[in-house]
Design brief:
Elements lengths: L8 H9 L9 H21 L2 H6 L9 H21 L5 E3 L5 H6 L6 E7 L4 H16 L4 E6 H4 L10 E6 L2 E7 L1 H4 L6 H11 L10 H16 L3 H9 L1
Parallel strand pairs: 1-3, 2-3
Antiparallel strand pairs: 2-4, 4-5
């Protein structure tokens, strides 16, 4: 009698017709196939981001939970390492030669604040001080400064100070000239609010500090004006 497990063309036909049972897989081959399947499943974990692992958590069985948790921890560690690389924490001086590397090639998702200034201009000095403080407060944002004419040839002094805001090398906001900043009365909170409006930093300020100053100024002006009754008295007198 012919062996039903023998590899012959006739046995293959009988298996397809259902006359013979499927060929028995040797135990060592079965274990190898199971291992390959497990590797395939693990590879899907490896290919997933942390967010994808969390989104697809319900699609895997209980046996996969340990592997999923392991890869989630690995992805979380990788994410933290990436975040650590993006911590700047100080304002850096650059030249025109550094512009492409430091601004255009800053990286995806990296906000860059660039201050064009000139020594000897008081408002530029003040803004450099404020931006240095904000660089420490918002280390995820890259803060840069550059002498205007070394970065942009023949850049006019009347446009100073100038602050450019970039994301992924693309300009998102620009603040040009002393009037935009309100002169030497500019406070660091006001500059923080402006940068937050552009998206460069995530502020915890609840409202524009400039508005508070303006409200106080208007209140002071109103209180200094004579009331209607006082005016009438003066006219009668």
């Amino acid at each position: 009698m012919q062996d039903p497990n023998e590899d012959t063309e006739w046995n293959d036909i009988l298996r397809k017709k259902g006359i013979l049972p499927p060929k028995e897989v040797p135990k060592d081959e079965e274990e190898e196939e199971l291992a390959l399947q497990q590797q395939s499943v693990v590879k899907t974990y490896e290919d997933m981001t942390l967010e994808e692992l969390e989104d697809n958590e319900d699609e895997f069985g209980e046996d996969d939970e340990a592997a999923i948790e392991m890869y989630k921890q690995r992805r979380l560690a990788e994410w933290k390492a990436t975040q650590m690389k993006n911590i700047f924490g100080e304002m850096v001086e650059i030249s025109g030669q550094d512009y492409i590397k430091e601004v255009n090639e800053a990286g995806d998702g990296i906000w860059v604040v660039l201050h064009l200034y000139k020594p000897g201009i008081p408002l530029c000095t003040l803004i450099n001080q404020h931006l240095s403080s904000l660089a420490r407060k918002f280390p995820q944002t890259k803060f840069l400064k550059s002498i205007s004419t070394t970065c942009i040839a023949n850049y006019p002094d009347r446009n100073l100070p100038t602050v450019f805001v970039y994301l992924g090398g693309e300009m998102k906001a620009q603040y040009i000239g002393p009037l935009v900043f309100g002169g030497m009365n500019l406070k660091v909170d006001e500059l923080e609010w402006r940068l937050a409006e552009s998206g460069a930093v995530k502020t915890d300020l609840e409202e524009n500090p400039r508005k508070q100053i303006e409200d106080k100024l208007m209140s002071s002006i109103r209180s200094s004006l004579p009331s209607g009754r006082d005016s009438d008295s003066e006219e009668d007198y």
